[in-house]
Predict the structure.
Amino acid sequence: MPALDITDYVDWDWLPGAADEIKVYLTRLLTEGSIVAHAVDSRSKSIASFQEKCARKGYDNPRLEVTDTVAVRLIMYSVTDKDRAVELVRERFDVAEDFNPGDLKDSERRGYDCAHLIVTGEKGTGSRDWMVAGGSLSKYFDRFGGLEIQIRTVASHAWAEFEHSRRYKGTLYEKISEHDRRTIDQLFGAAADARSALDETFTAIERVLANPTRPLASYDEEDEGEEDSVALSTATDEDAGAGTVDDDSASRAVPVDVPSLREFLARRFPDDGRGSDKGVEFACELVGACGIRTIQSLGFELGAIDGAEVRELMSTTIDVTRVRRLDDELLAVFGEDYINWTASIGSVGRREDQLRWRFDRLRDKVTLRRRTVTYQLFGADCPSDVVAVKMPAARVVRELAKIIADRRGPESVVLDGDVSVDDDLTPSTRALPVRLDDGSQIWVATNLKRSASERLMRTMVDTSEGLDLRVVRNGELFLP
């Protein structure tokens, strides 16, 4: 084996720093995916250990051939989290080797189950500059052949630690008879089967926690039943008075932009990290994807949840930014819709997967407060007996459909599955006929959740170019 020169010895001064940096890096990576590890342990080989391995293996180029000079082990609670952690590492790093040594063992030596990945640096795409510029980890990837990342479950770790101590490096094991060694091998096989069963049981427990059959506390969004009145454009004076607001009130709302959202986040999450301007721009995109245009509307939507409860469910092992807290709370409020709306936003390649992993912690576990959401219509093309009247979401859909159909014709407002000129919508929509000014009628779905109603409102307003129509939600401009 080539002898180590003085330069090699100097390198060992900073290798512990590289081990510390990869530990911080991977802890942060797991936090981004809302994965909590039992342990993240890193180490750098001592010079003596490095030399011993080189002598034993007969390496010609030790610096490149020893791929665990710095190594880190992630111990996860379940196979689900283990597999997710492996995927995050594969996405983030250039991987030179990716294998499970246990797969190479015969059945009599079964039991070892641990992903081994040798990484050689960050991938060039999607980098977030997580490595310290000029730091020890960056230097390590430049000077050494690879860094080993092991990922296993707590059950696999228990089996591996005992086997490593008693058999793999067990002096007593080598001193006993062949018969006794075979007996121990069989017992380790039985322990391996028990370990596998334990992993399966832990995974089953996690599935129940992620998908509870009975919500602890939640409410269905607005689900309107049929209304007796077919002539929709009627309202009592009492209704009109209660629903009237200043037509210009929406102009006083604060639009969502980087300065206003940064101020909002500082008030809502004062103890969390400020985050970068780029991060707040990302948050603005998330808020916009939810159809939220003003700070007041954002506050109203988040008022449905207890932020402390969400924080507890989404507990992290490291500090996170205010943008991440907002992301979690919007996920808690909008659920699966939020995943669909925001999956493609940002630079994280696996954002949709990570949102689903995070939602496993929130699904049917967050207490949602029932809120009264009312809408009003304004604009020159809005009939006088409808202007400013407070209405539920599904009724606004019908009123908009009537206004547009009266001015553009019934066919102009047809929406597949929701609005039709014939009584052919599915029974589950609980469609009602809406009488038009010329005596004809259209059929409009009424069995709509608020999110579905708002989607239809947006579609109608967007396609009614030339008509002066505005939708106000809880006193603030919602559309256009």
In short: Residues 251-362 form one domain. The longest helix spans residues 178-210. Confidence is low (pLDDT under 50) at residues 216-247.
